[in-house]
Amino acid sequence: MTNALSVVNVASELAPLAKSGGLGDVAAALPKHMLDLGQKVTSILPMYSFLHHRRKEFERIGDVVIRIGYKRYPAEFYQTSQGDLPVALIWNEELFSCKTLYGCDNDNLRFYFFNLATLALLELKDVKPHIIHCHDWQAGLIPNLLRCYHSHDERYGRTATVYTIHNLQFQMQGGWRAVPEEKRDDGRGEPPSDLWRIRRLNFAARAIRYATVINAVSERYAKEILTPDFGEGLDPLLRRRRRDVYGIINGIDYQVFNPAFDHNIWYQYDWHSLEKKKRNKRKLQQFVGLEVKPDTPVIGLVHRLTEQKGFDLLKLLIPSLLKLPLQIVIVGTGGKDYLKFFQDVAKKYPRRVGVYSPFTEELGAKVYAGSDMFLMPSRFEPCGISQLISLRYGSIPIVHETGGLSDTISNFNPRTMKGNGFVFSSYTPEDLLIAIIRALETFKYGAVWNELTAEAMRRSYSWDLPSKKYLQLYRKALRLRRNH
């Protein structure tokens, strides 16, 4: 342990305490695997109102007052643990009484406070970290604060910052496009302290400008964000820092996502017992109210109902899909217009289509276990862990060739038996339809499909390799920090 690094993970989500998507899973799994690699790790997240209701479960460890402009905000610090992982939570009643993680009208102020309070907590606990790992924009102000206010602070004299871009589309409260171009924050200099300018603060831009190293959650996405098509207005800044931009694909936690032990599904199974997966399919068909037909493929989707996840494409394709021998089960949250559209389709074709909202872990697991195929037609996808979960559960992915989907899914060739899914290149209904038809045709050959399913389940998509790559990135960041 003499060479162990002191790592502080800062994120707005940490499953199962607070989760809206894949960020929560990654922020929970990566620190746990860093502990397995012998590092000293702590995680910090906001205490949302639904967590504050459970505050008696946590230990209160102190409080400070955070000053922003002329206003003072009390910060209460709590701690708990997830297994061997120490977890700290930061509470302020005025800022975090909002019932949701995001979408409040003062999100920039909330997370400005969270970033300041995180550094105050490290001082209170006398933590001198080697690495502060900041996940997405909600933790993105920390590199800026360290550079501007703590550059001569002995506590951070050897501290390097790692900024992970989970989705560059999300940069600040309300989105960067909502700010007039002439008023957009370029990320230079000290962060403002007046409330009006804080509303226009681009946390992601400041993280990219000031972090020691930057990484995206797949190798392809790390290249894509350097271009105008995927850079979300920050590609010029990213190109200037391209030597410090890396890509590391996410893994999934096999202690969480494992059909052999998952109590959310009807029958536990592995690749040796695929007949139990077929029994899960029958149960899913019954549960949803679909026609119970073992030879009819069930296509599952477990996503946010947004254009990014490809629901604009799926909406256009529904009339064609309903002419094919298949069934569709959708579990998702958000996107009210898309939700209503697909709910209307399900009402019209109740034996063909099922739609469930909001997402729950139990419903998601049942779809992964009971579906034959998993549709992920994302317009863009930084990494995606849904396709990795679907492989683990033997639901074969049908994906758009973009970002992390391109890094993890390859076209299945029945002649060579190589590949683990079905991929379409052009973001068009026609190309997606061809990929789905290819999957349906392959499904007709039971022995081939069973081998494809078994091989998908046998392969490892765990955090073992990604966590080692992150450790290498941490050490590289420390070398860069020493040289500057």
Number of strands: 15
Helical fraction: 25-40%
What do we call the CATH homologous superfamily of the largest domain? Glycogen Phosphorylase B
Quickly give the structural class. Answer: alpha/beta
Ends distance: 27 Å
CATH fold descriptor of the largest domain:
Rossmann fold
Q: Mean pLDDT, as a whole number?
A: 96
Please write the CATH class name of the largest domain: Alpha Beta
Could you describe the 3D structure shown?
The chain is α/β, with parallel strands linked by helices and 484 residues long. It folds into two domains: 6-251 and 464-482, Rossmann fold; 274-458, Glycogen Phosphorylase B (Rossmann fold), CATH 3.40.50.2000. The chain contains 18 helices and 15 strands. Strand 3 and strand 4 form a beta hairpin. The chain is globular and about 65 Å long. The two termini are 27 Å apart. The model has no long low-confidence stretch (mean pLDDT 96).
Secondary structure elements and their pairing?
Blueprint: E1 6-10, H1 22-36, E2 40-46, H2 49-52, E3 59-68, E4 71-82, E5 85-91, H3 93-96, H4 107-124, E6 131-135, H5 142-149, E7 160-165, H6 195-198, H7 203-210, E8 213-216, H8 219-224, H9 235-240, E9 245-247, H10 274-288, E10 298-304, H11 311-321, E11 327-333, H12 336-348, E12 353-356, H13 361-370, E13 373-376, H14 386-392, E14 396-400, H15 403-408, E15 422-424, H16 429-443, H17 446-458, H18 464-482
Parallel strand pairs: 1-2, 1-6, 2-5, 6-7, 7-8, 8-9, 10-11, 10-13, 11-12, 13-14, 14-15
Antiparallel strand pairs: 3-4, 4-5
